[in-house]
Each structure stands twice: as C-alpha cells, then as structure tokens.
Please model this.
Amino acid sequence: MAKTIAARPLLILAAGLALAGCINFSALDDLQEAPPPKDPFALALFKNYAFLAHSFGDVGQAQYTSFDQNASIPLAETDATVAQLANAYANKALQLSNGQLVDPEVSRDIKTHELRERLVRALAARDAFPRDAARAQTDWDCWRLNIKVPSEAAAAEQCHLSFNVTLPRLEAEAATVAAEKAKEEAEKKKAAEQAPATDQSETP
Model:
C-alpha cells in the first residue's frame, strides 16, 4: 500500500505532462491542424501567411500578446518580438481557415495610408487574379508588420521593395477587370434599350 501511495504523485505528474503535450499554447501550434480555406484568394493568402509564420524557425512562445481583430500586433507596439511576429502571421492564417476575412494591415501615416487605399481598391481583382492579389496583400502586411520588430528591419524593406512591384501589377489587372465589367454593363444596357423597339416592331 505504501508503494502505491508513493507512486500516485508520479502518475499525476506523468498524466499532466501527457496532457500538456496535447495543448496548443500559441497560434503557431494551432496552425499545424488548421484546414486550408477553399476560396482561391483566401487559400493563397493562407499559404503565404503560414509560410511567413514558419519562416522564423523555432521562436518560442509569444508572451502575453493580444492581437486585434485583424490578428495584427497592436499599433502601439514598436519593439515586438519575433515570436509575436510569427504568431501574428499564424493568427491571420487561422482567421482565413475559419472563413473570416483578413484586411490589409492598417497604416500609421498619410503616405502609407494612400498606399493602403490603392491596395484595397486593387484587391477588387482578387477573384480574377487570386494569387497576385494575395501576394500584394502579403507583401504589404510583411512590410508593415516586420518593421515593428527591430531585428526584422532588413526583411521589412525587402517586402517593401516587393510591394512596389506587386501593387502596380495588381492595379493593372484590376483596371483590366474593371474595363471588362464596364464593357459587359454597356452591352447589357444597349440590349435592354433595343429590346422594347424590337417588341414593338413585331406587334401587328
């Protein structure tokens, strides 16, 4: 009986360790089991965020980090850790996995606000060009998020340079989509205007 009682704390400890191994402590842990979304744009964005989340390697746990509704590091955060950064990307991917929309990172000044507005307008082409739209948004988010982590300043600039390429490309594609849509609307309007005249001419 004495041996059984002495062994109980060890059994409890072992059970606790086993349970701890099944608990996800961060968004990075949850991302391992997250199903990808089916929408082409959301899927491409999910893959991009997941890649960025895992690109930092073993970053440990982000301590006491609370993300906003877009899974972003708080705007007031200017010295975030790499762990927080990785989990911010993971949170974005998880939101997409759950069928939620993820908007581009908010801007802090007039110049970047104008760039963000251009991106938002260009994202109207996401159904026709899902991968290019996802890449442009990812470049933007990478630039605006990485810049909050001092050690990732160089990576942030690389994303900035990439965004300077992917945004104009998406804008050109969005212009093509808008032109095609305008042409279709004009043809529908013309057909609708001609329909009554055709009906009257056939009336005896």
